[in-house]
UniProtKB/TrEMBL annotation:
Protein name, entry field: 5'-deoxynucleotidase HDDC2
Record's subunit section: Homodimer.
Keywords: Hydrolase, Magnesium, Metal-binding
Species this chain originates from: Bos mutus
Any GO MF annotation of the entry: metal ion binding
Pfam families: HD_3
Length: 286
């Protein structure tokens, strides 16, 4: 028997289905939304379109609270959420001047590409989850989410996500570059906010050579030039301070100052004695 959403029997039917099918163990702490999605997928419950869309909005609200894991691992204070990241990507897609791209599709791809993270979280490279496993988890999450939509929209959203994952269109490739560009733009902003130029260099290193779209190449070039100038300026201040004769032989002080300037990986081995001072050639790498 199939029940319509809103009937008095719906919750008990959903719970009964989930329990009998052994899809998950139902208890008082169980998230009933997951139970509903499982039952709906099996055709036990049919949701009305307004209710179903409300359920999707409820699920996606978690994106506002899921932090971007890379920033968390680097101890960034108040890191952006996945929702923040996707919104700026969508706006960047909206204002592209490339007339060869379907702008509307680019915006849609940007808004969908990380949607699964409201369920699986933001899986970062540092988590060491194999690419295939990451894809499997996100694919399962997308199928779960799209079940909350009418059939025509289920297909549209899932295919948008799949298009991005497979990089099967010019729009998907453009949005992928926007994804990486937005990340290093955010890295530069965090360096500025912390007044530690160069601290998040590894994010720049991870995107080296991955940009090819002219607009993005230009944006990244301007961003890197401004950032390198900030790093050089910080290095000049640091070296000037090292000329203080009372401190220039104090390697502990030099390392502390270098770290304050964003050079977190400086060690004693990076300082080569030269006369009465130190060779600082390994400290600042732009």
């Amino acid at each position: 028997m199939t029940y319509e959403c809103g009937e008095l029997t719906t919750i008990s039917t959903v719970l009964s289905y989930n329990h009998s099918s052994s899809l998950l163990e139902v208890n008082m702490e169980q998230d009933l939304r997951t139970c509903f999605m499982n039952a709906q997928a099996a055709g036990i419950v049919k949701g009305q379109s307004d209710e179903v869309n409300k359920d999707l909005a409820w699920e996606l609200s978690d994106l506002e609270r899921v932090p971007r894991t890379g920033w968390v691992y680097r101890n960034v204070q108040k890191p952006e959420s996945v929702s923040d990241h996707m919104y700026r990507m969508a706006v960047m897609a909206l204002v592209t001047k490339d007339e060869h791209l379907n702008k509307d599709r680019c915006v849609r791809l940007a808004l969908v590409h990380d949607m699964a993270e409201c369920i699986v979280g933001d899986i970062a490279p540092a988590d060491n989850v194999p690419r295939e496993e990451k894809h499997r988890r996100e694919e399962e999450a997308m199928k779960q989410l799209t079940q909350l939509l009418p059939e025509d929209l289920q297909k549209e959203l899932y295919e948008l996500w799949e298009e991005y994952e497979t990089q099967s269109s010019a729009e998907a490739k453009f949005v992928k570059q926007l994804d990486q560009c937005e990340m290093i733009l955010q890295a530069s902003e965090y360096e500025d906010l912390e007044n530690k130029p160069g601290r998040l260099q590894d994010f720049y290193d991870s995107t080296a050579g991955k940009f090819s779209h002219p607009e993005i190449v230009q944006l990244v070039s301007e961003l890197e030039a401004e950032r390198n100038a900030n790093i050089a300026g910080a290095a000049n201040v640091f070296i000037f301070n090292c000329l203080d004769s009372s401190k220039k032989r104090d390697t502990v002080w030099i390392i502390k100052e270098a770290i304050e300037c964003g050079q977190e990986n400086v060690r004693d081995g990076d300082l080569e004695a030269e006369g009465e001072g130190f060779e600082l050639n390994k400290i600042f790498k732009s």
